[in-house]
Every structure is written in C-alpha cells, then in structure tokens.
C-alpha cells in the first residue's frame, strides 16, 4: 500500500488551512486504498530557505530541521497539497518547504486542493509549475474552493458537498500514479 502525505500549505497562526487538510484526511481515510498521513509543514519549523544548492543535491543540509523534513518526505510515495492562494500564488512557507528538498520529491505523484477568493486556481497553476522541477507528477483533477462559499466568515471551513466527488477523483489518480511511480523509483534506486 502506498503512503500519501496530505501536506498543509500555510504556517500562519490564524490559518484555516489545517481545517481543509483535516477534511481531506477524513475523506481519504474512508477509502482504504492507501496509508494517508497529515503532514503539517508548520510542525517542521523550517527557517527561511538558505541552503547552498550543492547541499540540496547531496542531502548534506546545514539546517537541522531539513534533515527531519527530508526523512518525512522521503518515506512518502505521493502527496495531496492543500494550498491557499496568497496574492495569486502559493505561500512562501510552502515554497520554502518544497525548495529545501529535491531528490526526496523525485518520481512521486501529487494532487492539489486549493482555496481562495478566486478558488485558488492561480495557486494551483503556480504549484503545478513549481513541482515540475523536482520531478513531481501532478495529476489532472484538482479541488478548487471559494473563501466566500466554502467557509463561514472566511474562518470556519464548511465545504459544499460536491467537493467530495472532486476530491475522490484527485485521490483516485494520486493513488494510481503513486503506485506506478513507486516501481520507477525502485528501478532508479537499483541502478
């Protein structure tokens, strides 16, 4: 069974991101087709990204927190990124968390659940482009939610029921692609 990390995309104290991530996890756990784990980037206390590029490629991190982060991402086969849209992009905390690593992301699958005043669509497109560099295969379907209709007063997450169908399509593809890409990683590691 593949291991899928549900990654939070915000580290703000006042974030609603964890509510959305917990909803994704509760829906995913009903499926029984993968081992789903909530991975809160805030728990890793990653400082602003400041690693020398050669360290990223060699896993010789100078930031102690990066070692723990590396271990966690390395043990996962795929991801569901839960990202808010800030100023038409993903958060700086999420971007830093991605940038700290490279090989740990390689040949894994990801799905995206976004939200914002314009459904987080630009953040989704931004994240697709960012993840292409460390060789993460982002699945086609995504979930896009509105701060105005899927949240009460932009503070309490209350998703429309039709989002469950969209989320299940994302999870279907992430599990299938993660399973297939695991065989590719095994071949690459065997070389």
From TrEMBL:
This is NAD(P)H-dependent oxidoreductase. Coiled coil: none annotated. Residues 2-148 form the NADPH-dependent FMN reductase-like domain. InterPro entries: Flavoprotein-like_sf (IPR029039), FMN_Rdtase-like_dom (IPR005025), NAD(P)H-dep_reductase (IPR050712). Keywords: Cytoplasm, Flavoprotein, FMN, NAD, NADP, Oxidoreductase. Belongs to the azoreductase type 2 family. One of its GO terms (molecular function) is FMN binding. Homodimer. Pfam families: FMN_red (PF03358). Its main location: cytoplasm. Signal peptide: none annotated. It is found in: Cytoplasm. It comes from Lysinibacillus composti.
